[in-house]
């Protein structure tokens, strides 16, 4: 218990041998692939550089602070020395930064290359699947033609059958249909009110005379008649 | 400016808190409150460390049974005795929040248990699509990947424990290194 933390184990190397604090023995760990190993080593190297970089930064800051202190204490030479050391550290830091950048770039390139491989593998698999699923266009053409033929044949048969069933009745049916239509039309006609056959009034003049006529008629006859003259049948 | 005291802090103001209770039910409650008190204190410490020194400098949280200040309350003139301290320490270990460094004397304290970390890390991996590539533990606690996330600054040994939990759940593969904990590799599935 406490493989990683226990004081007795001391060195961090215990992690590799002791199989960690959970205690449980991991049955068999799959071996790291070559690619993973390469990437891991690359990252470890980059991490080491990162640590070195941070250390240099800290030391540089120490010298800056020291220089400031020396100036305050009026020890100009000491201050100058501190600044020179700081300058030296800065140059070292720049080199480390460049190397770090290179390693970081390499890590990214390797990861991107791995992704590219995966993408291409994916495309290959997709391509293969697509090819297997796709139908042959010639086959499809044949099938469509066959289907069309069959449909035509079926229609022919239907026509023949329907001919045999109603050869003469067809004419009779049509005649009967016409008769019914005519009867309906006549019925409708009877229901319609009669349109007056009087000439349509031209604007102005005859209206007066008509009105006069109306008045005369009103006095002599019943009210319904003149109303019917005036009224035009409304056909819906 | 003072925040309202937590429940554990409230109980720490009473003398009885510093005497290990005989009654089982009461003792259970008492020890649990002690656990909360310790974890709250360490959580506060860690936050302060992170704020002032940044992620690199934070060391592991160690509880020394002899010298942990909250075990003693000068105002009340009371201190938790050795049996009580041991009970608190054992409880921390049993609940996954602690691990003996020097058995009986000093204890590593985990504010978050390894299993909690395992979930946090796995969720982070899922959300950011980190599966399928290999990473180092150093990258996880100090890399750009985890800047300004809760994972930044995690203690490497604690991180590895969390990763091993994920391994047992078949969510990750851990490749230990012979050189240092930071160089342990991990690939998430």
From TrEMBL, chain A:
<dbReference type="InterPro" id="IPR005024">
    <property type="entry name" value="Snf7_fam"/>
</dbReference>
<feature type="region of interest" description="Disordered">
    <location>
        <begin position="189"/>
        <end position="236"/>
    </location>
</feature>
<protein>
    <submittedName>
        <fullName>Charged multivesicular body protein 6</fullName>
    </submittedName>
</protein>
<feature type="compositionally biased region" description="Basic and acidic residues">
    <location>
        <begin position="1"/>
        <end position="10"/>
    </location>
</feature>
<comment type="similarity">
    <text>Belongs to the SNF7 family.</text>
</comment>
<dbReference type="GO" id="GO:0015031">
    <property type="term" value="P:protein transport"/>
</dbReference>
<keyword id="KW-0813">Transport</keyword>
<keyword id="KW-0472">Membrane</keyword>
<keyword id="KW-0967">Endosome</keyword>
<feature type="compositionally biased region" description="Low complexity">
    <location>
        <begin position="209"/>
        <end position="222"/>
    </location>
</feature>
<keyword id="KW-0653">Protein transport</keyword>
<feature type="region of interest" description="Disordered">
    <location>
        <begin position="1"/>
        <end position="36"/>
    </location>
</feature>
<dbReference type="GO" id="GO:0005771">
    <property type="term" value="C:multivesicular body"/>
</dbReference>
<dbReference type="GO" id="GO:0032511">
    <property type="term" value="P:late endosome to vacuole transport via multivesicular body sorting pathway"/>
</dbReference>
<dbReference type="GO" id="GO:0000815">
    <property type="term" value="C:ESCRT III complex"/>
</dbReference>
<feature type="compositionally biased region" description="Low complexity">
    <location>
        <begin position="11"/>
        <end position="27"/>
    </location>
</feature>
<dbReference type="GO" id="GO:0006900">
    <property type="term" value="P:vesicle budding from membrane"/>
</dbReference>
<dbReference type="Pfam" id="PF03357">
    <property type="entry name" value="Snf7"/>
</dbReference>
TrEMBL record, chain B:
<dbReference type="InterPro" id="IPR014041">
    <property type="entry name" value="ESCRT-II_cplx_Vps25-sub_N"/>
</dbReference>
<dbReference type="GO" id="GO:0043328">
    <property type="term" value="P:protein transport to vacuole involved in ubiquitin-dependent protein catabolic process via the multivesicular body sorting pathway"/>
</dbReference>
<protein>
    <submittedName>
        <fullName>Vacuolar protein-sorting-associated protein 25</fullName>
    </submittedName>
</protein>
<dbReference type="GO" id="GO:0042803">
    <property type="term" value="F:protein homodimerization activity"/>
</dbReference>
<dbReference type="InterPro" id="IPR036388">
    <property type="entry name" value="WH-like_DNA-bd_sf"/>
</dbReference>
<keyword id="KW-0653">Protein transport</keyword>
<dbReference type="GO" id="GO:0000814">
    <property type="term" value="C:ESCRT II complex"/>
</dbReference>
<dbReference type="Pfam" id="PF05871">
    <property type="entry name" value="ESCRT-II"/>
</dbReference>
<dbReference type="InterPro" id="IPR008570">
    <property type="entry name" value="ESCRT-II_cplx_Vps25-sub"/>
</dbReference>
<keyword id="KW-0813">Transport</keyword>
<dbReference type="GO" id="GO:0005198">
    <property type="term" value="F:structural molecule activity"/>
</dbReference>
<dbReference type="InterPro" id="IPR036390">
    <property type="entry name" value="WH_DNA-bd_sf"/>
</dbReference>
<comment type="similarity">
    <text>Belongs to the VPS25 family.</text>
</comment>
């Amino acid at each position: 218990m406490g493989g990683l933390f226990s004081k007795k184990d001391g060195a961090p190397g215990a992690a590799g041998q002791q199989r960690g604090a959970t205690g449980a023995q991991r049955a068999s760990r799959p071996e790291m692939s070559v690619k993973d190993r390469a990437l891991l080593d690359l990252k470890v190297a980059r991490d080491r550089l990162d640590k070195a970089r941070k250390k240099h930064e800290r030391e540089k800051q120490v010298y800056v602070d020291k220089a400031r202190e020396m100036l305050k204490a009026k020890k100009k030479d000491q201050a100058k020395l501190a600044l020179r050391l700081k300058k030296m550290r800065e140059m070292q830091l720049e080199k480390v930064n460049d190397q770090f950048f290179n390693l970081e770039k390499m890590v990214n390139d390797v990861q991107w290359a791995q992704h590219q491989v995966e993408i291409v593998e994916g495309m290959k698999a997709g391509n293969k699947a697509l090819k297997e699923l796709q139908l042959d266009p010639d086959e499809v053409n044949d099938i469509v033609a066959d289907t069309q033929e069959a449909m035509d044949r079926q229609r022919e048969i239907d026509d023949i059958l329907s001919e045999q069933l109603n050869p003469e009745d067809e004419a009779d049916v049509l005649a009967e249909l016409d008769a019914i239509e005519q009867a309906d039309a006549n019925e409708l006609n009877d229901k319609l009110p009669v349109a007056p056959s009087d000439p349509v009034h031209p604007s102005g003049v005859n209206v007066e005379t008509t009105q006069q006529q109306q008045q005369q008629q009103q006095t002599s006859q019943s009210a319904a008649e003149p109303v019917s003259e005036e009224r035009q049948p409304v056909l819906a | 400016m003072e925040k309202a005291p937590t429940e554990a802090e409230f109980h720490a103001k009473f003398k009885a808190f510093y005497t290990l209770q005989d009654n089982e039910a009461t003792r259970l409650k008492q020890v649990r409150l002690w656990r909360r008190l310790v974890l709250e204190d360490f959580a506060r410490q860690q936050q302060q460390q992170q704020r002032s020194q940044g992620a690199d400098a934070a060391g592991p949280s160690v509880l020394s049974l002899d010298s942990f200040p909250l075990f003693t309350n000068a105002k009340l003139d009371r201190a938790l005795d050795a049996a009580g301290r041991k009970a608190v320490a054992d409880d921390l270990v049993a609940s996954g929040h602690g691990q003996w460094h020097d058995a009986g004397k000093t204890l590593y304290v985990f504010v978050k248990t390894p299993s909690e970390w395992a979930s946090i890390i796995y969720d982070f991996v899922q959300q950011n699509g980190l599966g399928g590539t290999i990473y180092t533990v150093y990258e996880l606690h100090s890399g750009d990947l985890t800047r300004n996330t809760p994972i930044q600054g995690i203690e490497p040994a604690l991180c590895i424990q969390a990763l091993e939990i994920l391994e047992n759940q078949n969510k990750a593969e851990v490749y230990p290194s012979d050189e240092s904990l930071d160089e342990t590799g991990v690939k998430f599935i």
